[in-house]
Amino acid sequence: MFKFVVIYYRVDDETALEDFFTSTHLPLVESLPGLRRLEISRITSQPFGKSRFYMEVEAYFDSEAAMREGLVSRPGIDLMNALRPWSENKLIAWFY
């Protein structure tokens, strides 16, 4: 298994984050070719207080090649374009 992870940082306007996630991020990631499993975790706290993270999204693929194929598909390109402003504003961390 190979996974692509997006971690959202906590923001002042959690409603805007949730709206973006449910209307844009989630439908696009669910439509990625080769997606095998999707896990979404909402982060409520950490030891000794509130976490700076809000949510983690893990998209699983059979291999790195399968993930790359999914990310160069039309939904993958749309997903990367939708997430780019969030990354540029340091509101997400994304990695694989």
For the structure shown, list the relevant keywords.
96 residues; alpha+beta; four-stranded antiparallel beta sheet; globular
Report on the structure:
The structure is a single chain. The chain has 96 residues and is α+β, with helices and mostly antiparallel strands. It has three helices and four strands; from the N terminus they run βαββααβ. The protein has helices spanning 14-30, 64-71, 74-88; strands spanning 2-9, 37-42, 53-61, 92-95. The protein has a four-stranded antiparallel beta sheet with strand order 2-3-1-4. The longest helix has 17 residues, at 14-30. It is globular, with a radius of gyration of 13 Å.
Radius of gyration: 13 Å
- Major beta sheet, specifics? 4 strands, antiparallel
- Shape label: globular
Structural category: alpha+beta
Average pLDDT taken over every residue: 95
Q: In which range does the helix fraction lie?
A: 40-55%
